[in-house]
Backbone:
């Protein structure tokens, strides 16, 4: 299928070409490789339906398994079936949650028929019944076990084998068949079993090295154990593993040594190094060095799992203790990047046992912290990262500051379930200042240290400068897929809606362009969270569905914080409550305290929308007291509103004071508008009206529609209570229409109730065609409406072009249109409306 490589979009073509060593380039993202494979399969299936069979899937290397599982999960409209066969369910983590079909044994009549086809001697009926019972209809067992029975056993059952697990009996049968062959044939079978490519020329070269004559293959072929054609093929993969495992260690080493000698060092240096490693008993620096070079080539192709395997074996064969420890450390790093944190931890223990220099000791500790963070143990990661950063201070100050920033991020994720961010902030403040002009990450680190030690107002000037530097860096075309780091939470914390939108949008674009599925779900959640606050709730749902699909495809846990906020703004009490409660237990198990705070903010918004102010009070008070980036500061307006409506004026005033300190320091139109809206709730008469008008005016200059529309709602509610019904209707009508358009059902119902109280009749909203769209269809329709081709849409959403076309046909049907030219107009005309009368 590589003939179609040139038709792929450049990022996919480059990634797959680099992975196969056909071209050089940056290390390809594993799932961009997966998208390229998906595209090739989809193209091939245009000509005729395609079956892709992966037998013995339990033996796949990790990287290949992840790529193939990703492809399998993204198949929708393609005429492609991917079939993975594994011995036992759940042997390969990457295949988790794919549809499965457990294979049962043959029915009794078919089992009898198969057994009869291989019998060459009379078979006692009782012996037949026992064989059928013990093989449970397993075809391989029915074909193989009769070979181990003598005529006497077949005739009367005399000396039938005792009870033994079926796989063991099959292997024992294979072993006995092989042991009956000539010694030279057995040695040839072992060489064939040790070489996974099945290349006949390589087999004959290795046989010549060992002095095995060509005629040695004849007895194995005659017994049906081996077939020598375009490839060397064993009767069954279980036979191959039986041959290899039955040999003594010295025999296996001899076979690998012969294969290493027969492998061209120029054409296939990596396989030669691997065979040399298996042929070597004692530590050998020359072999270890070859493995290290192979690891570098594997990592350059994106094969992190292969690189880790090479390095792990290299470490075991390294005679010098210090060099062995360093190679084990590199192997652990590769394992961690390949998504195997537990195996990385084991290798770190090996590295820690050997003498390491100060820099390597610091990197070992840093890796421990990163692994803890990967395992969702943010609280445990903080002290490890801080210790590593302190060790790096005198060795690499820049790397030390990066590590301090990682520690602050870990502490902010752990939240209340960790030790807090103060320790990390204090340590960051003591870090050595950067040489020359501080970069964006340096400014972020200094600003965050000030934020948690000196308070919001003191840190605002530095963090504003940091945001400006981060935005400049993002516009410069940098390709760091983790950009803009924790600045994604700093921007909303400073009420900077322009920076918030730019950072979140650019972050997703960079991750998409790089095909970085390891970080894209988090980026999509941050963008989705922003889209909730700017009122695009449908867009948020599409983004989060995409994030969940990627998490499922990559076998990682879904990220939920943006979905919690979306549920709170949607206003469906039953659905939101179930989601929030489920997230709490998961967050506690993972030590993600920040998720609990997001859940509290979601509850506060939900209940304020429903008018359940007493229920909103507790969550808003708890969330605002945490002082966590983004989430706590946005809980303060909810607390002011809930406390005011509950008659808790002292609590509302105290919350307003804390809010005002932050909004005045932020100084944006969004911040000052939120403050004016909240202050109006605690004001009376002309002052209250002036503040409501100021809030609407300021918020109208921002992109945050929910904040603006809530200003209209509160102003309308105040006007109605002031007996100014005509004026109230104007504000409440704007609020009701706005909430309906955004899909904020609870707030819309609250506005509807207020409108009815003014004596106005409210007409129900009519259903629109777009209401039937799935979240993915919403996203595809918008991208197609913006003029993107099917291939471009597929590249953004990690779908094949054929799947995009399939979705577009459904979209056209729902909108009753027939072309893309009509799509933009149809989407505009189909927008939700509500007209109070």
Residues:
């Amino acid at each position: 299928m590589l003939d179609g490589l040139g038709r792929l979009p450049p990022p996919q073509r480059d990634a797959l070409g680099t992975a196969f060593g056909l071209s050089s380039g940056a290390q390809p993202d594993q799932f961009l490789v997966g998208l390229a494979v998906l595209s090739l399969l989809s193209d091939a299936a245009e000509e005729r339906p395609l079956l892709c069979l992966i037998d013995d899937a339990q033996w796949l290397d990790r990287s290949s398994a992840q790529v193939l599982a990703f492809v399998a999960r993204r198949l929708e409209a393609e005429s492609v079936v991917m079939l993975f066969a594994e011995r036992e369910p759940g042997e390969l983590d990457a295949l988790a949650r794919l549809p499965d079909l457990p294979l049962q044994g043959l029915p009794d009549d078919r089992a009898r028929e198969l057994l009869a086809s291989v019998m060459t001697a009379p078979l006692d009926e009782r012996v037949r019944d026992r064989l059928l019972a013990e093989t449970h209809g397993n075809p391989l067992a029915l074909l193989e076990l009769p070979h181990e029975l003598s005529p006497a056993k077949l005739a009367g059952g005399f000396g039938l084998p005792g009870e033994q697990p079926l796989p063991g009996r099959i292997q024992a049968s294979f072993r006995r068949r092989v042991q009956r062959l000539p010694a030279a044939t057995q040695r040839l079978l072992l060489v064939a079993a040790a070489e996974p490519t099945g290349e006949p020329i390589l087999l004959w070269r290795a046989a010549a090295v060992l002095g095995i004559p060509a005629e040695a293959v004849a007895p194995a072929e005659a017994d049906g154990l081996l077939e020598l054609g375009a490839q060397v093929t064993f009767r069954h993969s279980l036979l191959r593993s039986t041959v290899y495992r039955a040999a003594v260690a010295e025999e296996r080493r001899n076979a690998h040594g012969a294969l290493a000698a027969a492998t061209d060092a120029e054409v296939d240096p990596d396989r030669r190094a691997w065979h040399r490693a298996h042929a070597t008993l004692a530590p050998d620096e020359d072999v270890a060095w070859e493995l290290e070079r192979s690891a570098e080539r594997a990592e350059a192709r994106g094969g992190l799992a292969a690189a880790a395997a090479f390095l792990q074996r290299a470490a075991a064969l390294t005679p010098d203790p210090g060099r062995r420890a360093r190679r084990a450390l590199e192997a652990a790093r590769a394992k961690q990047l390949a998504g195997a944190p537990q195996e990385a931890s084991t290798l770190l223990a090996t590295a820690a046992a050997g003498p390491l220099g100060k820099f390597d000791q610091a990197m070992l500790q840093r890796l421990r912290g990163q692994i803890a963070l990967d395992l969702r143990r943010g609280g445990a990661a903080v002290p490890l990262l801080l210790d590593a950063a302190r060790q790096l201070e005198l060795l690499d100050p820049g790397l030390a500051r990066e590590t301090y920033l990682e520690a602050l991020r870990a502490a902010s994720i752990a939240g209340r379930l960790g030790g807090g961010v103060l320790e990390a902030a204090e340590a960051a403040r003591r870090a050595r200042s950067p040489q020359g002009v501080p970069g964006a990450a340096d400014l972020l680190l200094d600003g965050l240290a000030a934020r948690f030690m000196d308070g919001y107002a003191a840190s605002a000037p530095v963090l504003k400068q940091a945001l400006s530097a981060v935005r400049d860096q993002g516009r410069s075309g940098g390709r760091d897929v983790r950009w803009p780091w924790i600045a994604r939470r700093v921007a909303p914390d400073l009420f900077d809606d322009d920076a918030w939108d730019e950072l979140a949008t650019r972050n997703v674009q960079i991750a998409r362009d790089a095909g970085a599925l390891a970080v894209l779900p988090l980026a999509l959640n941050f963008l989705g969270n922003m889209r909730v606050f700017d009122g695009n709730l449908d867009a948020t749902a599409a983004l989060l569905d995409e994030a969940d699909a990627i998490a499922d495809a990559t076998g990682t846990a879904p990220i939920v914080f943006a979905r919690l906020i979306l549920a709170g703004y949607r206003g469906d009490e039953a659905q939101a409550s179930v989601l929030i409660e489920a997230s709490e237990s998961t967050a506690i198990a993972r030590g993600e305290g920040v998720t609990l705070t997001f859940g509290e903010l979601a509850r506060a918004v939900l209940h304020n929308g429903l008018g359940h102010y007493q229920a909103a009070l507790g969550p808003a008070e708890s969330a605002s007291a945490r002082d966590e980036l983004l989430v706590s500061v946005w809980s303060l307006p909810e607390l002011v509103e809930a406390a005011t409506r509950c008659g808790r004026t002292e609590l509302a005033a105290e919350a307003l004071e804390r809010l005002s300190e932050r909004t005045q320091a932020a100084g944006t139109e969004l911040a000052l508008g939120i403050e004016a809206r909240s202050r109006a709730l605690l004001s009376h008469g002309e002052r209250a009206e002036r503040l409501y008008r100021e809030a609407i005016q300021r918020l109208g200059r921002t992109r945050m529609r929910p904040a603006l529309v809530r200003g209209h709602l509160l102003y309308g509610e105040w006007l109605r209570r002031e007996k100014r019904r005509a004026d109230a209707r104007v504000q409440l009508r704007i609020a009701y229409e706005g909430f309906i358009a955004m899909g904020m059902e609870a707030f819309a119902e609250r506005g509807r109730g207020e409108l009815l109280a003014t004596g106005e009749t409210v007409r129900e909203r009519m259903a629109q065609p777009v209401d039937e769209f799935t979240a993915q269809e919403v996203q595809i329709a918008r991208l197609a409406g913006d003029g993107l081709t099917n291939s471009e849409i597929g590249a953004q959403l990690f779908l094949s072009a054929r799947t995009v076309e399939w979705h577009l046909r459904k979209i056209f049907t729902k909108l009753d249109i027939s072309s893309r030219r009509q799509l933009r107009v149809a989407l505009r005309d189909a927008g939700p409306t509500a007209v109070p009368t």
User: Anything to note?
Assistant: Residues 456-475 form the longest helix (20 residues). Residues 831-837 have pLDDT under 50 and may be disordered. The two ends are 62 Å apart (CA to CA). The beta strands are 50-54, 80-84, 226-228, 232-234.
